[in-house]
Amino acid sequence: MKALATGEALERPAIVGGTPIRPTFLVFGRPALEETEIQEVMDTLRSGWIGTGPKVSRFEDQFKAYKQVPYAMAVNSCTAALHLSLLAMDIGAGDEVITTPMTFCASVNAVLHAGATPVFADCDKESMNIDAREIEKHITSKTKAILLVHFAGRPCEMDAILAVAQKHQLKVVEDCAHAIETEYHGRKVGSMGDVGCFSFYVTKNVTTGEGGMVTTANKQLEERIKRLALHGMSKDAWKRFSDTGYKHYSVMEAGFKYNMTDLQASLGLHQLARAEKNWLKRKSIWERYQSAFKNLPCILPAEPEPNTRHAYHLYTLLVDTERLSVSRDFLLDAFVKENIGVGVHYVSLNHHEFYQKAVSNGSERFPNSEFISERTLSLPLSPALTDSDVTDVISAVRRLLNYYKKTA
After folding, report:
1. Residue tagged active-site, from 204, 219, 247, 405
2. Is 114 in a helix, a strand, or coil?
3. Helix 78-88 vs helix 219-228: crossing angle, to nearest 10
4. Is 294 a catalytic residue?
5. Do residues 69 and 89 lie in contact, with contact meaning Cβ atoms separated by under 8 Å?
6. pLDDT in tens, 134-172
7. Domains, the chain, ranges and CATH?
8. Which of 181, 203, 172, 212 is nearest to 72 (CA)?
9. Is it the case that residue 6 has pLDDT exceeding 60?
């Protein structure tokens, strides 16, 4: 069957056949890696030092300069960053931490790993970020912290959330997994709460394959997080075995194996150096999508709020199921048949059987999170995309949403 032009009706549903939009599969979230990263990794391998060492230290220095914070501690994931942050603030058994159900499971799992109890507060339907008014509704005498998520790279309403935190003397953990470049009213996210936690997973705007970072302005938190990240030891391997002379260490407490390696940092050094260039590329793709999908049966992401900077990590289209003859899940399969990789960010965590039991109010209803959960569909948004790739994504969205649009 001949490939169809943009907007042309399908002869039959893509889910059961028809010529795909493109001949090869477009992977969702493919990272943009260049020769500089490859050469840096080779340099690390040739150096003989591939564990935690000088390149991790360089990456930490560059990251804290980029985020304009006094301290940055590299770890092996954002999950580790969240877990260590809670432990370093002595949050554990008997404590409650308020967070959003519209997030990846790691945000909530970190609270459980710390021994504390997660409590859900609904998000705002438009921004998809946790709502400060909902947070305040769920504060009890046991509440010790707010764990907010800058969803898709859009900053939370930090003034309102920080006011709630100050009023109730709560710690604030910023989950910045989507938000490396994000700013709110002239301030970098990750610098406004007690700690900021970042992800360098393979799909993230800056990647080390796996990896994370904690930022803080608190020297005591910095010292404890660094210690907890490596077995609770007073000195890491680079400080013990480098050419400055052997140094004994002391185990200060039972820590974890959460350290980043120089192999990972080798990628991060050059990824971070291109962060602004890549941000501009993602911004241009995001804007192409916004323009191309007007007047389709879908709800577009809200434009960035005034005096903020969106990281453009995710482009989360909400399919208008009331105007379509098929469900969002049907469309997921249809996009795959068109050779377009897509994602779901996220199925609201209160829909997962485990969190209905593990979260104190997990069986409650959260209307805004659930509305998003049933409709959200994330499109490829990577600086690795070519103009042709973006055109293919746009063509697939138009083809499927027009084809499955209900007729009067």
Report:
1. 204
2. coil
3. 120
4. no
5. no
6. 999 999 999 999 999 999 999 999 999 999 999 999 999
7. 14-30+275-342+380-403 (3.90.1150.10), 35-273 (3.40.640.10)
8. 212
9. no
